[in-house]
Every structure is written in structure tokens, then in C-alpha cells.
Specification:
- By secondary structure, the protein is an alpha/beta fold.
- It has 3 domains: 2-205, Thiamin diphosphate (ThDP)-binding fold, Pyr/PP domains (Rossmann fold); 213-368, Rossmann fold (3-Layer(aba) Sandwich), CATH 3.40.50; 384-493 and 510-570, 3-Layer(aba) Sandwich (Rossmann fold), CATH 3.40.50.970.
- The protein contains 25 helices and 23 strands.
Length: 614
């Protein structure tokens, strides 16, 4: 079939399917795009021409639309995607940050940036970055560092191998992440006789990887020797849909569970074995159990510094690590005994051979859970004399939200409050991007989640600092008639980083949203911003909230609207939750004139000695 490269690309994407546990799903729902000279007459023409079932979504910032695409894929457990296309230069580079977000979180994202002319005849073209030492280098080479697969189509027939490799990565449980196929704008329009077998329906099978007998035997030996094992469930449990198996495993062997940000929300929050979030943004229950455990069974987690408290969280000198993961790169972290397998397959294989075992835990985890549930209630009912508590506001929203509502977050202090305090009421209701903790994801992510689950309520928790970074897709939500609930917590700055700054001995500097004064510093009055009016200007319904009665009334009234809603919630400065018996290693200054910084450095040096080296 004679088609332009861009037309063949559209036709190819429209015919890709995935099969998981016998269920076949169309993989590519549509394409987000912001058209410019690098794509509008190429892939833009192909989309406009029709003859396909892909939905075109109009983005309003390239990073924003790509973050929405990430959230769409995440909410669909990585089995459906929306591709993203842009012009060359700044439009393309705007997507680099989103590609970092996708790759860090192991989420499939396909970006299709326009590129300069392969023929080089009109060079330098508008928006082209010229490198005199390497003429073939363009802005799109920046994607190499943040993508799991990168290619540039310099001849139309190269599209075929590029697309197969792209799909190989996008559908891989172990190697997925961002994929970039750069498209020189002249090649987009060049025709080629593409064979029918390239364009026909293609099914990619996402099979459950089985463990070897040796791996299972090694895992069983470790578990048998453990008196107080602990399971940590990560994103791999969510994406492999193995949370029921993980819970059955924990119940059979009396093993308490800690959750990562990506693993939270699948196991009932009030199950007797669920200790909740573990790590820096975790709670007191899971962190207390982590310090005692002699075997960490890490299931589908990357064991990041926030989960492990910078490898400090497991204080038992005899602690060992068992990691179940489809990705070898993750499975061997922290000197783990690795089981390279799908979580469901591995846990079932262990249960089939391990009989008669029960951990030595008695009432420790039950007492820890009970105490922390009381702490959650205290934080959710926090009353302050000088303002509205962030944790009280979060509790009101948590109580109000429907059982199947999706709660979203990404950056600032809110992910900590949510991992510690949020009570997930059903499966697939907790949606946190914390692999990259990318400011600006929250509203864009809410749009993506709503596109993935149009019949469910979506609440995104966003700070004022992150809102100012990026909220472009709020306009797209209006355009798509996608009702998202933007819960904007205005604490007058980057409160999470201010806390980190203060806790490490440095006075507040550059982290509050204040005016510059005659002193030359940003030490003036806080700039009061009416975020509700901004949302109204986009065509949203909005509310300005300063206390719990106003929040409750606004939530109730918002039920009557079918358009995006923004709640401008003015919360008290420093009213977020604190860490619970955790530690995070940051680079405290070794030399300083400040006594408080000197003390912070001494304290950090002492804690480093308690952490594992690798």
C-alpha cells in the first residue's frame, strides 16, 4: 500500500493490540498533539485524512499532554496508551521531562516529535538547533537520556523496524518506559510501498514470566529461616494485577505488608496485615515493622530511597532481602536474592511448595496498626487556631469521595500526607506519580485518569507551587468535558522543600511566595493569589475555601456540575504531616558558618553509619 511515512505510522498504531491473561485490548486509543511546522502537514495530515479509529486530543503544553498520556496508561495498568506528537525544537523538548517521568515510573509513553529535514536542503530550518561539530544532532537527541528506545526515521522504510522495536519496549513489563521516534518533517511526507503484513492487526502478548525452580527453592530457604518477614508491595503488584495473590500469601504465612506509593491502594487499607505506606513518606506502623524485620520480601518495587529510607529503614543487623521482579535491574538491588518473575506466578509457586511455615510475629504489627490508625484520626481532625489544617482538609475530601473515586498526586508535601493518611476505599483508586515526583503532573494526570475511567470521579491533590508550574491541561479538560476535581492546597509556597530546608538547619530562603523588598531579598509579604478566578477564566466551576464548613459545602455543591471544578483551599502554613521514624539522606553542607547547619551535618553523618552501603 503506497502511503506516506506518517500515514503508515497512523495505520500501524491503529492496528496494535495487547493480550493479557487472555483478554485482548486495543493498545493505542489516540494521539495527543500540538501542531507546528514539524508535524502538522505530516502526521497531522494523516490524522485529518481519516481511515483510522484513533482519537485526536488537542494538548496545550507538550509536557502537559504527555503527562496526561502517562496517567492514562498508568490507570489502564500499562495496557492502553495515547501517543503524543509535536513540532520540532521547543515543542519537542517540552516532552523530555515527561519522558523522564514515564521511564522513572516504568510507564509506556510514545512520543513522536517532528525533526529537522533529513535532506538538509533548507537547513537551518525554523527552530533548528545547529551543532557545528555534529550536523546530524538535533534537539531530539535530548530524548536519548530519558527513553528506553530512541530512533530517527531518515528514510520512510525505516519506519517498519522502528515501530516493531517501539512496540517491543512499550508492551514489555520489564523494559517499558518512554519511546521516542523522531520524524524529520520531509520524511513524514515521503511515500513508500508498505507491505500489507506490516499494516495488519498485530497482537502483542504480555505473558506472565515464570520463576525457575532454583529461584523458588532459594526464596523458600530464606523465608523458612526468617522469624519476622515483611512484604513490601510495589507497582509491579498493581500492573500484574496480583494484589489478591499477595494478600493471600501474607495471610497464609502471617506476614505484615508495607506499601510503596505505586503499590498503595490495592490491598484494603484496614486489613489487619496492612501496615500502610513504608519509608520516608510512610507511616509509623510500617516503619516500625521495617526496623524489626529480618527478611524483606520486596514484590514489584524498585526499592527507591523513599521506600528504604535511603537504605536506613531496615535496622535489624540480620536482615536479608528477597526481591520478586520481572526486571533484573530492579531485582538485584540492595544485594537481594532475586526471583525474576511475574509477582503472581512467583508467589503462587512459593505457596505451592512452602507448607507449615508461619512467621514469628505475634501482636507487634496489630499494635502498630492500631496506634497509627489513631494517629490518622488525630491528623484528620486537626484543629488549628491560626488557619485550616492541610490534613483536616484531606480528611474531609477522603470522607466525601466515593468508594471508586480516583485520588491523584505527585509532588510536594501532599504525597506524604496521602501515603500516610489516605484511606483507599477500593482497588485502582490511588494514583500517585512518585517515581519522578514531577511538579505539574497532578492536573495533567487527572485528565489522563479521567479519560481512562470516564465514569469515575477523579480528585487531584495539588499544591499552589505545582499548580503554577503547569496546569495547561485544565483547559483540555474543559474542552473534552472531562469533569476533574482539582483540590488546590494553597500554603503560600513550596512548603515541602521549606520543611526540608529548615530541618537541615537552613533558614527559609527562596521557598515562600513573597515579594522582594528594599533589602534585596524575597522577604516581604506573601503574595495572595486567587486561584479560583484563574480556573473561572478557563470555564471551570471554582470555590474559594478557608475553613472546613466552606469545604464541605463546596464539595456538596460540586456534585451538581458536569464541568471541571477547582477548589482553592487556603491551608495554614506548615500544617502538613511530618515523617514517622524515617530518615532521608540529603546533601547537608559539610562546612557552614551556621551552627544549625553544622549540627544537621553531624546528625546526618551519624545516621549514614546506620544505613546499608548498597
Amino acid at each position: 500500500m503506497k502511503l506516506t511515512m506518517a500515514q503508515a505510522l497512523v495505520k500501524f498504531l491503529d492496528n496494535q493490540y495487547v493480550s493479557f491473561d487472555g483478554v485482548e485490548t486495543k493498545f493505542v486509543k489516540g494521539i495527543f498533539g500540538i501542531f507546528g511546522h514539524g508535524c502538522v502537514v505530516g502526521i497531522g495530515q494523516a490524522l485529518e485524512q481519516g481511515g483510522h479509529s484513533l482519537t485526536y486530543y488537542q494538548g496545550h503544553n507538550e509536557q502537559g499532554m504527555a503527562h496526561a498520556a502517562i496517567a492514562f496508561a498508568k490507570q489502564n495498568h500499562r495496557r492502553r496508551i495515547i501517543a503524543c506528537t509535536s513540532s520540532i525544537g521547543p515543542g519537542a523538548l517540552n516532552m523530555v521531562t515527561a519522558c523522564g517521568t514515564a521511564t522513572a515510573n516504568r510507564i509506556p509513553l510514545l512520543v513522536l516529535p517532528g525533526d529537522t529535514f533529513a535532506c538538509r536542503q533548507p537547513d537551518p530550518v525554523l527552530q533548528q538547533i545547529e551543532q557545528p561539530t555534529a550536523v546530524s544532532t538535533t534537539a531530539n537527541d535530548a530524548f536519548r537520556a530519558v527513553c528506553k528506545y530512541w530512533d530517527r526515521i531518515e528514510r520512510p522504510e525505516q519506519l517498519m523496524t522502528a515501530c516493531i522495536n517501539a512496540m517491543r519496549v512499550l508492551t514489555s513489563p520489564a523494559d517499558t518506559g518512554a519511546v521516542c521516534i523522531a520524524m524529520p518533517q520531509d520524511v513524514e511526507a515521503e511515500a513508500f510501498d508498505y507491505p500489507d503484513y506490516f499494516l495488519k492487526k498485530r497482537v502483542w502478548y504480555i505473558d506472565r514470566q515464570r520463576p525457575s525452580a532454583r529461584e523458588i527453592d532459594a526464596a523458600i530457604d530464606l523465608i523458612k529461616d526468617a522469624k519476622k518477614p515483611m512484604m513490601i508491595v510495589g507497582g509491579g503488584v498493581t500492573y500484574s494485577e496480583s494484589w489478591k495473590t499477595a494478600l493471600a500469601f501474607a495471610e497464609k504465612y502471617n506476614i505484615p505488608i508495607g506499601e510503596t506509593q505505586a503499590g498503595k491502594g490495592q490491598i484494603p487499607f484496614d486489613h489487619p496485615l496492612n501496615m500502610g505506606g513504608v519509608g520516608v513518606t510512610g507511616g509509623a506502623a510500617a516503619n516500625a515493622i521495617a526496623k524489626q524485620t529480618d527478611l524483606v520480601i520486596a514484590v514489584g518495587t524498585r526499592l527507591t530511597d523513599f521506600t528504604t529510607c535511603s537504605k536506613w529503614g531496615f535496622q535489624n543487623p540480620d536482615v536479608k532481602m528477597l526481591s520478586i521482579n520481572v526486571c533484573a535491574f530492579d531485582a538485584f538491588k540492595m544485594d537481594s536474592v532475586a526471583v525474576l518473575a511475574d509477582a503472581k506466578e512467583a508467589l503462587n509457586a512459593i505457596m505451592a511448595k512452602l507448607d507449615g511455615y508461619s512467621s514469628g510475629w505475634t501482636t507487634e504489627y496489630q499494635e502498630a496498626q492500631k496506634a497509627f490508625f489513631a494517629e490518622i484520626d488525630r491528623m484528620y481532625n486537626m484543629q488549628l487556631k491560626d488557619g485550616f489544617s492541610q490534613t483536616r482538609a484531606l480528611g474531609i475530601i477522603n470522607d466525601f469521595a466515593a468508594n471508586d473515586a480516583i485520588a491523584i498526586g505527585s509532588s510536594g508535601s501532599l504525597p506524604g500526607c496521602m501515603q500516610r493518611l489516605w484511606k483507599s476505599k477500593g482497588e485502582n483508586t490511588y494514583h500517585m506519580e512518585y517515581g519522578f515526583s514531577c511538579m505539574g503532573y497532578e492536573i495533567c494526570g487527572a485528565l489522563g485518569a479521567k479519560l481512562a475511567a470516564p465514569d469515575r470521579d477523579v480528585y487531584t491533590m495539588v499544591g499552589d507551587g505545582s499548580f503554577l508550574m503547569l496546569h495547561s491541561e485544565l483547559y483540555t479538560a474543559v474542552q473534552e468535558k472531562a469533569k476533574i476535581n482539582v483540590m488546590l492546597f494553597d500554603n503560600e509556597g513550596w512548603g515541602c522543600i521549606e520543611n526540608l530546608q529548615n530541618n537541615q538547619g537552613t533558614d527559609t530562603f527562596g521557598t515562600r511566595f513573597t515579594r522582594r523588598t528594599d533589602s534585596g531579598f524575597l522577604d516581604g509579604d506573601v503574595i495572595m493569589t486567587d486561584y479560583a478566578k484563574i480556573a473561572e477564566g478557563y470555564g471551570c466551576k471554582s470555590y474559594r475555601v478557608t475553613n472546613e464548613d466552606e469545604l464541605k459545602a463546596a464539595l456538596e455543591d460540586s456534585r451538581t456540575y458536569d464541568i471541571p471544578v477547582l477548589f482553592d483551599i487556603k491551608v495554614a502554613h506548615k500544617s502538613m504531616s511530618d515523617g514517622y521514624d524515617s530518615w532521608w539522606r540529603v546533601g547537608v553542607a559539610e562546612v557552614s558558618t551556621s551552627e544549625t547547619v553544622q549540627k544537621a551535618y553531624e546528625e546526618m553523618s551519624a545516621e549514614i553509619k546506620k544505613a546499608r552501603l548498597y
